[in-house]
Design goal:
Keywords: Oxidoreductase. By secondary structure, the protein is α/β, with parallel strands linked by helices. It has one domain: 3-Layer(aba) Sandwich (Rossmann fold), CATH 3.40.50. 43% of the residues lie in helices and 15% in strands. The chain contains eight helices and seven strands. Bound molecules: nicotinamide-adenine-dinucleotide. The site of nicotinamide-adenine-dinucleotide has 26 residues, from helix 1 and helix 6.
Length: 251
Amino acid sequence: MNVNEKVAIVTGAGGGMGKVVVEQFLEQGAKVAGIDIQTAGLVELESRYPEQLLVIQGNLADEESVESAIKKTAETFGQIDVLANVAGIAQAATDIEKVSLKDWERIMSINSTAVFLTSRAVVPYMKQQKNGSIINIASVSVDRPRPGLNAYVASKGATISLTKALAIELAPYNIRVNAINPGPADTKMLGEFTTAGGNEGEAKENIFRKSVPLGELITPEAIANCVLYLSSDLAKMMTGSVVNVDGGRGI
Ligand SMILES: NC(=O)c1ccc[n+]([C@@H]2O[C@H](COP(=O)([O-])OP(=O)(O)OC[C@H]3O[C@@H](n4cnc5c(N)ncnc54)[C@H](O)[C@@H]3O)[C@@H](O)[C@H]2O)c1
């Protein structure tokens, strides 16, 4: 993929998909700043790649925390070529009349406002380099919503709109902005979409896996493959795209 000379920031780096994205970048020789509120899962990778991986504990819902994480990355590695916004939170399926404003705002702040904050912080570096790739993880649920995921679907829809808005705004600077829509993926998050009191294992099999035409849950590796491709120069004519990695769920 030729990403070995790139510096990538990965948010949600300690999570199911984020960690595999980080690992794939490291295996290819890239330098990575992995940001997460919970960094315990990154300890092993940090000891395997001490020169290449910078782990930053930060809260993406907090403006100052984001600014300082991006600054630290630039100071450590001298450039920022890729921003992969992988962090996100789920919503337990809830009827709209029972969704509190606090929950709505929490979901929006991490799934969409954080994408604004990280993008705003990296763009000055990318503009100076006249080169950059931003990849936002949205969700196929924007096209195929499930009942009760109202705030989650709205938050990911906003991220897709922001992706397109930034793609046109930043094209003159050779900064590409794309989104990936994962289908139901085999991570901790999947069970969190289950209605409160519901059986997570049963929902995973009977609702989620069976909804994928190719018959399997999406792996974090499948998402990471696409992130690396969009980061690389192989995708140099792709911007403003929304790529489904969903086993056909979006059809
Ligand atoms: N798992 C699925 O079925 C699925 C489907 C479609 C889209 N997605 C999206 O894929 C992305 C990755 O999800 P995942 O399945 O790896 O989930 P995950 O829960 O395993 O990982 C999410 C990570 O984001 C981090 N995070 C949450 N809030 C944060 C904050 N305020 N500051 C810093 N870090 C924070 C968490 O600590 C966690 O490590 C998310 O954006 C999710 O919405 C997931």
